[in-house]
Amino acid sequence: MFSNYLIGLREGLEAALIVAILIAYMVRSGNQWGVRRIWTGVAAAVVVSIAVGAVLVVVDESLSERAAEAFAGIMSLIAVGLITWMIFWMAARARFIKDHLHGELDKALASGSVAIAFVAFVAVAREGVETALFLWAGARATDGAASAFLGALLGLATAVVIGVLVYKGAVRLNVGRLFLWTGAALVIVAGGVLRYAVHEFQELGWLPGEDNVAFDVSGTFAPDGVVATLVRGLVNIRPVMTWLEVVVWLAYVVPTLILFFWVARRRPGR
After folding, report:
1. pTM of the model
2. Is residue 161 situated within a structural domain?
3. Closest by alpha carbon to 140, among 199, 86, 193, 212?
4. What residues make up the domain containing 187?
5. pLDDT on residue 224
């Protein structure tokens, strides 16, 4: 649940801050009429994101067990790729995002109301589609659709509240620091989703080593117990893991975290 809360918070906060930037610019530039167009684009992006999530669920449930495992593994790989790209993109460009959005709105104002709605749609839909895919993969990896959905909703609700408070000037938020640590946490979550993809491919026979167990603590912690459930919900690590799962998890998480902190802390121009 926590991992999905984190995903909802991070992605929702990015979307909320983008919407706040767009609306504030329209108001300050004397184009209040465009605020409604922005909300139209945001609404369309939300609908598309929900539709993507629904399609994933429907397709998954309509497949045979073996096909569903293959689908889940492949989509998990795509989810890890997208979330990794998003984390690094935001780490490298977060400081320039406001100027970029202002420039896009200036172009849209010269083109008309539809263009304004499109700017908001593209900016929010990117976050929404990534969120839908990653949440679905995370829920599949932890076998907890209900808790994943609840965690995501709580994360999104928190993001909306923070976005409103920031827009109204009620709180001052160090966005860079927040994105730094939530981004680092998401790398670990993504590592768990990648581990799940390896697990599925091993069960299918696409990858070797299904019987080469690295550790098995199921005798110490019951697979459905509180500790195992908590760890699985936090980082998608299970009581029993193969050597290939462990190696892939470490090979992704360790270098990705090092590179992420380097990119995030790099000064402009360096």
Report:
1. 0.81
2. yes
3. 193
4. 2-265
5. 63
Task: Dig out the tokens for 221 from the structure.
Answer: 């912690």
Q: In sequence order, what are the residues at sequence separation of 6 or more whose Cβ sits closer than 8 angstroms to the Cβ of residue 82?
A: 130, 133, 134
For the CA atoms of 125, 128, 134, 138, what is the dihedral angle to 10 degrees? -160
From the list 4, 27, 32, 13, the residue with the least C-alpha distance to 124 is 13
**One-character DSSP codes across 86-103:** HHHHHHHHGGGHHHHHHH
What's the rounded Cα separation, in Å, for the pair 202 and 223?
20
Residue 176: inside a domain: yes
Distance from C-alpha of 87 to C-alpha of 81, rounded to nearest angstrom: 10
Checking if the pLDDT of 269 tops 50, the result is no
* Domain tally, the chain: 1
- CB crowding 56-76: b at 16 or more within 10 Å, else e: beeebeeeeeeebbbbbbebb
Average the pLDDT over 78-96 and give the result. Answer: 84
Q: Which of 105-119, 158-172, 242-256 has the lowest mean pLDDT?
A: 158-172
